[in-house]
Amino acid sequence: DLAGKTAVITGSNSGIGLGIAEELAKLKINVVINSFTDTDEDHELAKKISDETGAQAKYIKADMSKGDECRALVEKAVEAFGKVDILVNNAGIQHVEAIGTFPPEKWDAIIAINLSSSFHTAAAAVPLMRENGWGRVVNIASAHGLTASPFKSAYVAAKHGVVGLSKVIALETAEDPITCNAICPGYVLTPLVEAQIPDTMKEYGMDRETVIREVLLARQPSKEFATTEQLGGTVAFLCSDAAAQITGTTISVDGGWTAL
Ligand code: NAD
User: Fold this and answer.
1) Consecutive sets of 10 residues in the chain, 260 residues long: mean pLDDT of each?
2) Atom in ligand 1 nearest the alpha carbon of residue 191
3) Most buried in the list 16, 63, 174, 188, measured by CB within 10 Å?
4) pLDDT at site 196
5) Residue 192 in contact with ligand 1 by CB distance below 6 A
6) Is 216 part of a structural domain of the chain?
7) What is the pLDDT of residue 49?
8) Which of 23-40 are b and which e, b meaning 16 or more Cβ less than 10 Å from the residue's Cβ?
9) What's the domain count of the chain?
10) Which strands sit side by side in the sheet containing 6-9, from one edge to the other?
11) Structural domain boundaries, residue 48
12) Do 105 and 155 touch, CB atoms closer than 8 A?
């Protein structure tokens, strides 16, 4: 029974992170929603989740590109809810460009947000989980944590790093009632993916439906997007007792991508 646990989900005012927060809140898990902004909409999002599920939800601003803010997010979650039981490292950005012209500042930002943030939040949260005698760290990697595509150097490097980091955290917590795993989604139709569609339409001279089927889902044999609800459900499973011996591994939610 996960009711009354506290989950921190980084990068969760949109897309997969928001879907995970909603699914966990349905299980009466208190959720901390996060992004780098601090708008009325951000706080209303938390209120809406709370109203709809009866779980407590709080929005806490923290920029995941900055190590000290990553650590402060965990501290503020403890101030709000007394503990952090579940850490979901989800914040992530993308940039698609050939390596020769790939902007170094984009490389740095992607490594910071998609990889280093998970190190900082886990560094703050794992000792607390150990003290409390229970914990789950779930890192949202990607099919690109296991395979590569051209023009995604920083993203693929960061996501492979997330898979490696997850294994190390799992080994360091192996004798504690704590697990750490990485989820590797294929394509999910979120704002991050939506943003890649117009350029791809132009580049290939294709309409939207053709881009989705022939380009985005070219490597996803199911020819369907995974959904944010399914990813929330996968996180919930990894938090359950059934998953207590699942640690240091990856779960693909990719419609068969990595079977190809
Ligand atoms: P999204 O753009 O909808 O969400 C990204 C979230 O991260 C947003 O809430 C955004 O506010 C937040 N964020 C960005 N920069 C931040 C920062 N500096 N500090 C704090 N928060 C920040 O994208 P998404 O598709 O939901 O992606 C979520 C995660 O899932 C990412 O790690 C992404 O790499 C991964 N993923 C996505 C897909 C997909 O197809 N959408 C596939 C595999 C993996």
Assistant:
1) 98 98 98 98 98 98 99 98 98 96 98 99 99 98 97 98 99 98 97 91 95 94 97 98 98 97
2) 3
3) 16
4) 87
5) yes
6) no
7) 98
8) bbbbbebbbbbbbbeeee
9) 1
10) 57-61, 30-35, 6-9, 86-89, 135-140, 178-185, 250-253
11) 6-186+227-259
12) no
Residue 217 within a domain? no
The verdict on the CB of residue 142 being under 6 Å from ligand 1 is: yes
- Closest alpha carbon to 17 in 47, 53, 42: 42
- 32: helix, strand or coil: strand
Per-residue pLDDT tens digits for 102-126:
999 999 999 999 999 999 999 999 9
Is 193 near ligand 1, meaning CB less than 6 Å away?
yes
- Classify residue 193: in a domain, yes or no: no
Tokens of 8: 């921190």
Tell the residue nearest (CA) to atom 10 of ligand 1: 11
Q: Give yes or no: 155 in active site.
A: yes
**Is residue 207 in some structural domain?**
no
Dist. CA 129 → ligand 1 center (Å): 25
Strands 6-9 and 250-253: unpaired
The predicted pLDDT at position 123 comes to 99
DSSP state of 116: I
Q: What is the CATH number of the domain that holds 243?
A: 3.40.50.720
What ipTM was predicted for this assembly?
0.99
Backbone angles phi, psi at 100, to 5 degrees: -60, -35
Per-residue model confidence (pLDDT) at position 140: 98
Atom of ligand 1 nearest to the CA of 159: 34
